[in-house]
Amino acid sequence: MPTHGAAAGKTRSRGCFITFEGIDGAGKSSQIAAVVALLRARGIDVDQSREPGGTPLGERLRELLLHEPMHLETEAMLMFAARREHLAARIEPALAAGRWVVCDRFSDATFAYQVGGRGLAREKFEALEAWVHPGLQPDLTLLFDLPPDIAAGRVASTGVDPDRFEREQRDFFERVRGAYLERARQAPQRIRVIDANRPPEVIRTEIERIVAEALSA
Ligand SMILES: Nc1ncnc2c1ncn2[C@@H]1O[C@H](COP(=O)(O)OP(=O)(O)O)[C@@H](O)[C@H]1O
Ligand SMILES: Cc1cn([C@H]2C[C@H](O)[C@@H](COP(=O)(O)OP(=O)(O)O)O2)c(=O)[nH]c1=O
Asked: Which sites bind ATP (predicted)?
């Protein structure tokens, strides 16, 4: 974990990159604001963002990705095109300036949804990842893990019209969940699996402990 020199009043160092992941309805959006508030209360300069999106172009690509039917490989490449722009225009400059970046989803989501959920060839995912962000991964990823039937119930209860991904069936989300857990097993130091089938306050306490650990590392 990089030092948080700006917060501690030491020499400014590279910022920390934290991502949130999980299937739709896992509850990550509800917790991101709390983490950002916690970090800001500690004097850390935080840029909160999301994928797909995070830049004007990325948000336009998000609209297409969430609503326009397309080939699986088009979908994967557009996710990485939006990410390339996001890294160049926002993430890299922020981290280089010592700001922290808290992002709702990153490349683990492409592994989970496009490789796990849709069946994109792994080598194609790996090639895109190596092209778009060689040597860069989040410093910490909080993976919200939840059975798909419970997550689907939560999504339905919001009353918001489901997008192209949210309309997928349970077996799709079983594969997405499995791919996320596989990715977590490959990078256990970086990806912390959170049992999201608990009350929000309990999850929040656990996340605050993990982030506090990151702060003191
Ligand atoms: N731990 C939780 N227990 C029960 N309901 C939750 C929990 N966390 C979030 N929710 C509810 O589930 C819905 C989806 O949560 P949200 O944070 O938008 O999920 P995500 O961003 O992971 O798709 C919202 O209505 C939210 O209030
Ligand atoms: C970043 C990313 C998102 N997605 C999908 C997951 C989500 O269904 C959708 C939008 O993400 P998000 O806004 O996080 O959805 P929600 O808040 O409802 O959980 O995009 C991918 O399929 N691949 C990706 O690389």
From this structure: 22-29
